[in-house]
Amino acid sequence: MIQVIEATKTFNAGRPNAYSALRGVNCTISAGGLTVLKGPSGSGKTTLLTLIGCMARPTSGRIILSAGVAGALPDFAGAGEIEITSLPERFLTGIRRLAFGFIFQQFNLVRGITVLENVMLPGYPLGGNHAALKKRALELLDQFGIARHAASQVELLSGGEAQRVAIARALINDPLLVIADEPTAHLDSALSHGFLEMVAGLKSAGKTILITSHDPIVYQSPLADSVIEMRDGVIVGDGAGGGAAA
Ligand code: ADP
Ligand code: MG
């Protein structure tokens, strides 16, 4: 689905505090399964995720989306695979909105607005029908068992409920790829297992999922089809996860 070729990322390039967070990364995210990107804190996981998620560009190297992803984007219908690294910003924004759903560390729900509004938020830039967007958001809340909290302010939710809202929000635009950065980092083990149950549901719905994590509950999970291991800005291991062995 996504191929990363010799990607490097240097922060503060040309300055005394220049730092190479990625030093030539090659990896492939396959369609229709769970890929876990594991590695200690500071190894470059989030940096790689921002490149894959089209939130930042590599300093050098290439990132290629498969024809299957390109076909889901109106600008690229019939284009075959696309090399996104050199595309103008407005295309990257479109790819982010249409093809990807993001679950952020600590969930980043927007305070001061309701659960329903949080879930609808990523749908607004697509400019679709408001009633249809609201209906879809309510369906997602229902699917995750939190419809009764639709009108609640997010600050009143429990950890488990907030997690469900974050997943519903990531799914609002029906993305091909769901990207989560250390989703269990601040959860107790019961909630972490709960999160993985929801990931199992996404997998059976045919989503491709990419999770960064240094939590063994995640990278040792039987749900993981592929585990890519990072250290100091390079990939040191790339193999089948528990799911693929089963
Ligand atoms: P991980 O997610 O694996 O913990 P990161 O990708 O966040 O690692 O960071 C990798 C390295 O790059 C770290 O040493 C971090 O301090 C550095 N880094 C990340 N973002 C920036 C930035 N915007 N400016 C400078 N250094 C950064
Ligand atoms: Mg990180």
Task: Provide a descriptive summary of the structure in words.
The protein has 246 residues and is of the alpha/beta class. Helix 7 (189-204) links the parallel strand 7 (177-181) and strand 8 (208-213). The longest helix has 16 residues, at 189-204. It has helices at 45-52, 67-70, 89-99, 115-120, 130-143, 159-171, 189-204, 216-219, 242-245; strands at 2-11, 19-29, 34-38, 60-65, 82-83, 100-103, 177-181, 208-213, 226-231, 234-240. Helices cover 33% and strands 25% of the residues. It is built from 9 helices and 10 strands. The chain is globular, with a radius of gyration of 18 Å. The strands form 2 sheets. A 6-stranded mixed β-sheet has the order 6-7-8-3-9-10, with helices on both faces. The protein has a single domain, classed as P-loop containing nucleotide triphosphate hydrolases (Rossmann fold), CATH 3.40.50.300. The protein starts with a strand and ends with a helix. The relative contact order is 0.19. The protein binds adenosine-5'-diphosphate (ADP) and magnesium ion.
Counting DSSP H or I runs of 4 or more residues, the number of helices is 9
Give a count of the beta strands, DSSP E runs of length 2 or more: 10
Fraction of residues in β-strands: 25-35%
Helical amount among residues, as a percent range?
A: 25-40%
Largest sheet: 6 strands, mixed
Return the structural class.
Answer: alpha/beta
- pLDDT average, as an integer? 92
State Rg.
18 Å
Distance, first to last CA: 22 Å
Overall geometry? globular
Order of helices and strands: EEEHEHEHEHHHEHEHEEH
